[in-house]
Amino acid sequence: MDNLKVVGKKIPKIDAPLKATGAALYIQDVKIPGMLHGKILYSQYPHARIIKLDTSKAEKLPGVRAVVTAKDMPPNFRIGIMKDNPPLKSGKVLSIRDEIAAVAATTPEIAEEALSLIEVEYEELPGIFDPLEAMKEGAMLIHEEAKSNILKMPWRLICGDVEKAKQESAYIVEDTFSTQWVTHCCLGTSGCVAHFDMHNNLTMYSNTQIPSLAQNDFVEALNAFGLKNRRVRIIQAVIGGGFGSKLDTYAYEYIAILLALKTRKPVKIIFTREEEFFATSPRQCTITKISHGCDKDGRLTFRDVEMVLDNGAYTSWGATTPSVMMLPISSLYKVPNVRYIAKCVYTNNTYCQAMRGYGNPQATFAIESSLDQLAEKAGIDPLELRRINANEPGEITPQRFKITSCGMKECIEEVYKRLNWKEKRGKDNGRGVGMASLIHVGGGARVYKSDGCGTIIKMDDFGKVDVFTGASDIGQGSDTVIAQIVAEVIGIPIEDVNVINNDTDICPWDVGVHASRTTFVAGNAALGAARKIREQILEAAGKILDEDPADLDIKDGMVFSTKNKEKSTPLGKALRKIHYTLGGKMLMAEYFYDPANENFDKEFKGNLSVSYAYGAHGVEVEVDRETGKVKILNYVAAHDVGKAINPLLLEGQIYGGGLQGIGYALGEKMVYQNGRLMNGNFLDYKIPTAKDVPPIQPVIVETDEKDGPFGAKGIGEPGLVPTAPAIANAIYDAIGVRIKDLPITPEKILAALKAKDK
Amino acid sequence: MDNLKVVGKKIPKIDAPLKATGAALYIQDVKIPGMLHGKILYSQYPHARIIKLDTSKAEKLPGVRAVVTAKDMPPNFRIGIMKDNPPLKSGKVLSIRDEIAAVAATTPEIAEEALSLIEVEYEELPGIFDPLEAMKEGAMLIHEEAKSNILKMPWRLICGDVEKAKQESAYIVEDTFSTQWVTHCCLGTSGCVAHFDMHNNLTMYSNTQIPSLAQNDFVEALNAFGLKNRRVRIIQAVIGGGFGSKLDTYAYEYIAILLALKTRKPVKIIFTREEEFFATSPRQCTITKISHGCDKDGRLTFRDVEMVLDNGAYTSWGATTPSVMMLPISSLYKVPNVRYIAKCVYTNNTYCQAMRGYGNPQATFAIESSLDQLAEKAGIDPLELRRINANEPGEITPQRFKITSCGMKECIEEVYKRLNWKEKRGKDNGRGVGMASLIHVGGGARVYKSDGCGTIIKMDDFGKVDVFTGASDIGQGSDTVIAQIVAEVIGIPIEDVNVINNDTDICPWDVGVHASRTTFVAGNAALGAARKIREQILEAAGKILDEDPADLDIKDGMVFSTKNKEKSTPLGKALRKIHYTLGGKMLMAEYFYDPANENFDKEFKGNLSVSYAYGAHGVEVEVDRETGKVKILNYVAAHDVGKAINPLLLEGQIYGGGLQGIGYALGEKMVYQNGRLMNGNFLDYKIPTAKDVPPIQPVIVETDEKDGPFGAKGIGEPGLVPTAPAIANAIYDAIGVRIKDLPITPEKILAALKAKDK
User: Fold this and answer.
1) What mean pLDDT is predicted for residues A117-124?
2) Do strands B232-236 and B202-206 pair parallel, antiparallel, or not at all (unpaired)?
3) How near does any CA of chain B get to the CA of A584, in Å?
4) DSSP of B676-731, one letter per residue?
5) Cβ partners under 8 Å of residue A337, min gap 6
6) Of B21, B198, B586, the CB nearest to A21
7) Nearest residue on chain A to B22, judged by CA atoms?
8) How confident is the model over A210-267, as pLDDT tens digits?
9) Domains in chain B and their CATH numbers?
């Protein structure tokens, strides 16, 4: 490992120049001859009956090629993981983003104008916008055919005996924490181009995070359209951010498909920024009642959590985030008895989706806030409490996670040291320090039937390789990481590696970009294929150099004997010898890596990931008691990453995660009033910008994960997981008030101070 | 073999609908944002000194982005197989197509106008346009630095003792035959788009027949430009015909590269039809002195051939066609003693290139015309003479070709029978029959260091496969043949196979489309990869069905036991079981096939191909003694194809080859006068059209080639090889005159009749 040439180096993202110079082609840039432009008409009410829908005027507008409504969709065709979402709605609309008609026209402007010519009459209905209301006995049913507004997803994890532990605990705290809607704020808005060939095979230009699963979804849709056994090809444009938002297929994509079928032309639908705000699926808001106990020495005895999630009107992956929330709830720190019951509830709000962390930030906000409360009650320094209960390698957690490598303690110590914890803590002078830890999947997550990724590598006669990976680079830098791994294994410069990642015709299967799995899973897949190439080279070079292949190594494009350095040959020369021989060959290899992780059993137990990532964030804040404004003075983000394949990108993930977490903690909120989004633009919905970046210190803790590529774990999501509770805890340390409802706005702080002063 | 579902079927070309509806994207259709248009200024004289070259006015024309001349090219940079061709010429021009300047502008029209503003003054020099003149002692040297106008390519094959055989022969004939320049007449004209990225990596959109070798050529060019170790990617547009014309890289491509480098923009150069005629490289003209002998029983004793080829001013693959001419000269019919000496000679004519048959048509015209003369002299029916001397399986020819399968006798019998030879022959009534046979490489041809082709296959969860092949489909239908082979082996419908063949980043290495090698070599590569997929399926299905994999078969997407038909599973289900298992995988396989053929040794001997294709064409003609016009009444084209993978495409190759051969025999000729092409357009250069198609009977003779995919041999070129001599022989039978100089025009017939009547 000491001798690494490419892995472990701070290598800039290989696609950065393309993006920096505007040469990268985003979905917005896709142009196909004859292409039409689609636009969608959304509901004007969050809950209403459609009385009249007349598209005749729109159809007559010159330049309009098709106007579609629910009647053009296959009957009973539904999308989403619960199949509760018709891509075009009829009868009743259930949320303000309900799609009721769409137009394809020769220009976006004509399409837009046509929308205004569609006549719709509604009978407005009262809506339910509060999940607690929706859960009440006798509440109006959002989906009439469902028997309850509570989704049939029995999220319920029981480990040990919580009730008994409660009785045996020395200290117990209980409180309720809540989180808000936030959205991904991808700079590249959603969009697609649907294009049928003459055989009714579909090519979908997309910025999906799940090309292989999207392919399945669209195959299924074509079946519904009566187009059986057709091919679907997903071509991903350069993706301007994902963060979980593109983890499902959406109504607009099926509408583009329908319009393309109707018009026999390619149809492009691109979201405006306003659509991106109100018509995509955010991180859901949660209400979490949490109770924690410990013994007299501060050892955790139980954790008891009840949660309500606002699912919105339809169901996508957001409804499954409790599966990941279970991870910190059951296994963040050693806690023998755990109970977690979560309910996802239909409302007339927008429906929710996965977002970086996949529920973990909401759960960790509750857990880590509550832990500080417990520490106070037990009279233990909160960092010390965490030291006492920190996870360790070799542990098997109550949910049956097998902890292999674990750098949690090291991360906590880094926070302690770099935050100057002892000196800064408990000063009650308007400045304070706080911390929070995290656990997250770091070695894939078996949520689908396969958690695998395939890689194909071919190598030319001069040592240049093409790598076809199932992995999607949504900006996180996976292409660079994969190129590094391949370059290191084969012994070539990274410039000689070309990563192809955007076409299901070419790239092998992959379950998608989620669960921080790409470096780990796609990295291992690339590693496996690269090793096969390396073996072929060494075997052939052994013959050329008359050496045992086991004694050969490749670095910087030279094959040499490790025993006798004078015995060497340029790699290209060896490759040409391998190729230009009777029965010769160019080098190719394929490898499919599926981690040995487990699907949960019916009790939601099992080793979901083959590795777990840990981290601890510590924050020093200064709170202005006059304005309620929080200023971050210092921010230490220590992460157990296994091995840093590319410290530059890793730090980028930590900076980015931290900043996104700070936005979540202190400012971002989608303001919904009676189902209508009130701040759907970047003027009113404020994300932290470059000017808002506090002094973040990323700290990389390496633990050498045995199953990871070069020892690495996944690290895509963790950066924002502990941010909000660390800040909340620091604020409490600074001014003695605890904000339990995100975001922690100046108004809430002032109100809390006022209440405290009373 | 009896049970084949896809192979052996008349399946229409899978790309036909695209082409028929105009959806296919040719090089003409490639458009890249910011793309400029390049145009080339050619010499006005076939031989001249450039006195002045002033581009200043052109540079000032609005819209012009670059004007380049030889001084912009790297000094001493030369292209072509002898490196005798600077892409932009300075000092002296050596042919009328010499490129002396080029322009890149925002529109083709502006580029064209800019060319007219370039001021050139020439000092015209006397040229040499006759290779016999050029060979004379003291002749002016075309390339001053060369010592002779005769290329340093010592084509010389000696087998046995020709002089001794001459003395021992019962009958001997000797005569001289000559052939004309003809051009490929691709309906898609030449063109390219050169596009550099920010790292100076080059993407070249091209219609080359040799993507892997062109990649090497351009890498070399970038090196010359000082761009070391850059990546070159070749993307092939849909190719509108090749026929050998795109077997090399050309000046226009390097000019596009230069212009793209100068302007930092993509640059497109597309030939006009006129350029396609005069500025591409045709089949060269030849003068062949041939002598044949046989014993009293008609057994051939020797063949003695001397040949002069007009190479033109520069050297491309045309100069190497004698290597393939050796094949019929040494091995068409059993002939123990052979001598062949060929000289390629520089002239101030256009330089020549490979064209379908690669010299074989020229050589076979001389051989088969001469054989008829020998038969007459020996008093043997010419078909009988060929029966006596026909090649046979198991033979090793004097040039050391190992004949495996050989259907020559069967082909001759087909001609005999279907032409009604006995009845029609020797009637001297203005109607006559004639025949000629052919031998050609049918199992690759090791002319480069590798004769290989790679294939990668991946299979999705529903049984659909993507095949990445090195093979290029230039219209011959290789995609369809490869799809059939893969579909047959895996047991799926051909619709489920997607062939990707046009991108060096994706497709494995292949030496190029030439030597009729694609069905054989790329077919075997696809077969090898498909078998690996099949094995994986059967192994897994064996477990699912609890059967020995050896007892399983796959047809029409069902895996079943051959012993117990009730035991079966849909393929897709088996695939999903293979994939959706812990440690599961999607199926991928790679295979590189390099045939076990040999490069020639220094004496030009060796088993060039692992299989040889045979055929015999028989023609019945009617000759109008008044007009000299030849009418083809019947045309039997019998071909030993090993196994017909797709009889429909095979017949297409035979029809097309026959028609191209008829054009060669009876009409096509590039009329060069003192180095200038006089008929460079489709009005004056007449190719046979649909209206000219005679009744061609394609006859498929199957011989089951052991090394061929499903027993197939290559059959791309043979269709035109024996056409001209078969027609010439038939004309002789009809009217008693023999035309020895192609094309056989009415004028030549009338002149010959007149001379005979004297």
Assistant:
1) 98
2) parallel
3) 6
4) EES--STTTSPPP-GGG---EEEEEEE---TTSGGG----SSGGGTTHHHHHHHHH
5) A159, A160, A161, A162, A164, A165, A301, A302, A303, A398
6) B198
7) A198
8) 999 999 999 999 999 999 999 999 999 999 999 999 999 999 999 999 999 999 999 9
9) 16-23+452-593 (3.30.365.10), 31-126+184-278 (3.90.1170.50), 409-441+608-758 (3.30.365.10)
Taking CB atoms and an 8 Å cutoff, what residues of chain A touch B506? Answer: 466, 468, 500, 506
* Digit-coded pLDDT (tens) for B513-542: 999 999 999 999 999 999 999 999 999 999
Q: How many Å apart are CA B193 and CA B205, to the nearest integer?
A: 5
Contact call for residues B556 and A547 (beta carbons, < 8 A): no
State the smallest CA–CA distance between residue B505 and chain A in angstroms. 6
Per-residue pLDDT band for B583 (boundaries 50, 70, 90) equals: confident
Amino acid found at B506? I
Q: Could you tell me how many CB contacts below 8 A there are between chain A and chain B?
A: 122
B21 interaction partners in chain A (CB closer than 8 Å): 198
Residues of chain B with Cβ-Cβ distance to A509 below 8 Å are 460-461, 579, 586
CA B558 to chain A, closest CA, distance in angstroms equals 15
Q: Decide if pLDDT at A79 tops 90.
A: yes
- CB-nearest to B583 from A495, A576, A596 is A596
Q: pLDDT tens across A328-370, in order?
A: 999 999 999 999 999 999 999 999 999 999 999 999 999 999 9
B82 close to B143: Cβ distance less than 8 angstroms: no
Q: Categorize the per-residue pLDDT at A2 as very low, low, confident or very high, splitting at 50, 70 and 90.
A: low
Q: Do B588 and A456 touch (CB under 8 A)?
A: yes
Distance from CA of A228 to the nearest CA of B (A): 12
- Banded model confidence at residue B582, pLDDT cuts 50, 70, 90: confident
What is the per-residue pLDDT across B322-360, written as a single tens digit (0 to 9) for each? 999 999 999 999 999 999 999 999 999 999 999 999 999
Secondary structure (3-state) at A196: strand
pLDDT digits (tens, 9 = 90+) for A613-671: 999 999 999 999 999 999 999 999 999 999 999 999 999 999 999 999 999 999 999 99
The pLDDT > 90 percentage for chain B reads: 97
Give chain B positions within 8 Å (CB) of A505: 466, 498, 500
Q: Is the dihedral of CA A21, A23, A28, A29 positive or negative?
A: positive
Instruction: Extract the tokens encoding A412.
Output: 């906590």
Nearest CA in chain A to B587: A592
- Give the whole-angstrom CA distance, residue A11 versus residue A646: 6
Residue in chain B nearest A589 by alpha carbon: B590
- With contact defined as beta carbons under 8 Å apart, do B614 and B439 qualify? yes
User: In sequence order, which ranges of A491-586 are alpha helices (DSSP H)?
Assistant: 523-545, 571-579
The partner residue sitting opposite A594, judged by closest CB among B231, B462, B585, is: B585
Residue of chain B minimizing CA distance to A459: B508
User: So what's the ipTM on this one?
Assistant: 0.95
State which residue of chain B sits closest to A510, comparing Cα positions.
B586
Residues 6+ apart with CB under 8 A from B12: B480, B648
Which residues of chain A does B580 touch, with a Cβ-Cβ cutoff of 8 Å? 449-450
| B23 → closest Cβ in A198, A215, A580 | A198
